[in-house]
């Protein structure tokens, strides 16, 4: 027997459904997978607990199998997933967001990545801090854009594996860089460097058991303008051969899309599609120009989209049509896009996603010359999303797109965070939460839990996070 938890469990198995299970028993096996979740008084749960009580006190597993009882105002929630983040750009996070995308890349992003590649000690400091901060923010799964250097990406992967942060590390591929000092000289040189990284990472991870490996590589052509057709074609072949996922940027902003068309005479999405890059193992960041023509392509190919609401607000002229994507059952999760976004907090991205969707709905109402209340009577689909749907994006949506779990269900990896709304020492709330009814009413019903989880969604922060597990390993 591995670990047992008794208390309240919250997750979102599908968009719009907040599942709250009170007084349940959850069991995690020695490999970090959930093997049981059911009401504590269910016969199956009682059988498990009875088996523990009858175990010999000297049993090696008995001490580790004592159930952890969650506080009466605490709950377990799946960890957050950040589907799009540039690791080296954490070096200058919070700068230059008044600039257009292409100018911002030239002035800040490429220089930071070049610095990290050229200074292993700096890479150690930046990546060590970055991994720690992500875990503090409840992020237990990430998809990183790295740099072009093999060594710095291996440093990132090792920091993740040692700390227990699950995720994907993408060594950048870019053989047509606009910077003479930061780029790869040819498609062949780029492929050689990528193979070196893949082989080195595989060699490093060989020391771990399969269930202990939480880091994977992901093929990462930066974006079309800095990659030749030859390189893109050969990256596709390599990904198919080695069974590695792929990520990039697609249809992010007007200047980026214009640059692609000027170079290739084709639209961004058409190039990716013609090269065979759009598929179930493809993650594309932004896709802010998703429209009725593109939606069937994305859905048919089962592409996953990393929605980066804060970054889009700064570096894209258009906002991602999240309501339409969810209604068409596209695979969507959230990304911070550090440093295009200035915070590592996925909780902030959830809030931003809801805010932007409401602004889009407000613009729709304005175009119809009516109020929010009147818009439903004038036809058209309400474009807003709610806080429950945003939790789905931050947990299940992101994980599902990467072939993982993201819920608290049997067979899924136990990646969870312990959220404490209040404790005995602060009965009115922990951190920024002021919950005035807890002392008199408590949280006894599902509706009361929903009300208080929503309060946490709006005003909670890292002070409410009292524990975190990835693949059953406690990492916070």
Give a brief rundown of this model.
The protein has helices at 43-53, 101-118, 120-136, 150-163, 187-205, 229-242, 254-264, 268-274, 294-301, 309-315, 322-327, 346-367, 372-375, 387-401, 438-441, 446-459, and strands spanning 3-11, 19-28, 34-39, 68-69, 74-78, 80-86, 139-145, 166-170, 172-173, 215-221, 245-250, 282-286, 304-307, 331-334, 416-420, 465-470, 473-474. It is α/β, with parallel strands linked by helices and 476 residues long. The chain folds into 2 domains: 3-78 and 407-474, Urease, subunit C, domain 1 (Roll), CATH 2.30.40.10; 80-401, Alpha-Beta Barrel (TIM Barrel), CATH 3.20.20.
Detailed description of the structure:
- By secondary structure, the chain is of the alpha/beta class.
- It has 2 domains: 3-78 and 407-474, Urease, subunit C, domain 1 (Roll); 80-401, Metal-dependent hydrolases (TIM Barrel).
- 40% of the residues lie in helices and 19% in strands.
- The protein has 16 helices and 17 strands.
- Strands 6, 7, 8, 9, 10, 11, 12, 13 and 14 form a 9-stranded parallel sheet that branches. A 4-stranded mixed sheet has the order 3-2-1-4.
- Strand 1 and strand 2 form a beta hairpin.
- Helix 3 packs parallel to helix 4 (150-163), helix 4 runs parallel beside helix 5 (187-205) and helix 5 runs parallel beside helix 6.
- The longest helix is centred in the C-terminal third of the chain and has 22 residues, at 346-367.
Structural class: alpha/beta
Poorly predicted runs are none
Q: Which fold name corresponds to the CATH topology of the largest domain? A: TIM Barrel
- Shape from CA axes? globular
GO cellular component, one term: cytosol
Protein name: Guanine deaminase
Keywords: Hydrolase, Metal-binding, Zinc
GO molecular function: guanine deaminase activity; zinc ion binding
